[in-house]
Amino acid sequence: MLDAATIFVVSILADVLFCLCGLLLWRAQLQIPGMLPLALTFAARGTGLFLLVLAPALNSFISLWVGNVLLTLSGVLMLEGFARFLGQAPPRRLQLLLLLGVAVTWPLLLWLRPEDITLRISILAFASMLCYGRCALLFLRDATQPVALRRVTVAWSTTIALIGAAWGVSAWFAPSKSLLDPNPLLSLYMLMHLLSFLVKGVMTAILVGVRLRAQLLARIDEEHAQLLMLSHELRTPIAIASRSSELLATQDGGADPAATRRVDQIRSAIARMSALVEQFLAETREIERHDMPERFDLAAEIRNLASSPRLALDLPERLPFTGDRRMIGIIFSNIVDNALKYSPAQSLVDVYLTERNGRAMLTVEDRGLGLGPDGGQSRLGERFYRAPNTDGIPGVGLGLYTVRKLLATRGGAIALRPREGGGTVVSIEFGGVSHAG
Q: What is the DSSP letter of 297?
């Protein structure tokens, strides 16, 4: 078994490490309550142990007094930190009783019974029992943490409290002359005390991780709810625009081919926007996971979606395909809209559709701005990210992100590369099955 001196050194080093980690976490996550007292718990304990070890070389009275007060303060800070973390009222009476009791009693004990270390060890052991017992009660009353984690924390705190009570009694049957005395029972208790703080540091990190995860999920749910509300609100103006475009088409009656083409473009854009809204609502309710794929002619579908006169299509006559028709429409619309938007007004955008190894491959080549600086190309497809060379062009950075997400969830893939002579080449492998040949 490790001797008392080694245990003291390891305890002090561990307290320094956990204190630094706690302070860094406190500075990084100010929204989590109780982190500063929990970090200072390790600082108080480590400093207290350091003073007790150096007591023979320093002023013994002051070192022993301040060292034991700091050890008690570490327990008080532990209760303060966990109470704040769990949103409960700190046990002020118990905290004051422990801190004032040691601060007032220790000078008297050191003056009246300076050699009676057993009494002081016993008092500290019972103080540890009260701290960990009250800590177990805090977690027992909590309803915010996961049940399994709460049970483990309560069980561990209760175990340490019982060990403190047992040592408070056992110390009288195996008295020690000093904290560094080669006493097996004292070494065992100090080892358990060290283990209790190591486990407390690890469990604190786990508790903080669980809290951060819960806060992140809550924030995501809130943002998702706002997007869902926005999507519902968009349905009304989209429906109005769709009806208006139908009235325009009816009134024109095909007399003006140019006007008819513009109306068709408007209706096509409205249809794509409506499909995007419906896609988002469907994914929100997890309907998409239960949709049955359908078999259709992918080449014909691409021709129907390609409404811009700037698109130069190179498609097979037919390409039977089994997959998600709406997904195809959303992906095609986003990629082609980007290609048209980021290239000169009169330039062509080439669209190729092929079949390879039972997979449908779509390639879109434009003669526009390109992928931007090399340093930002790896970020293309991140939500709300736009390449620096797109400044001044309307957009929010969601099109390519949506495409990547849809393909990733359906077994597809996308790749981007610069086009020789300027522009961008987007290659898409659809997550469906083609039946060519």
A: E
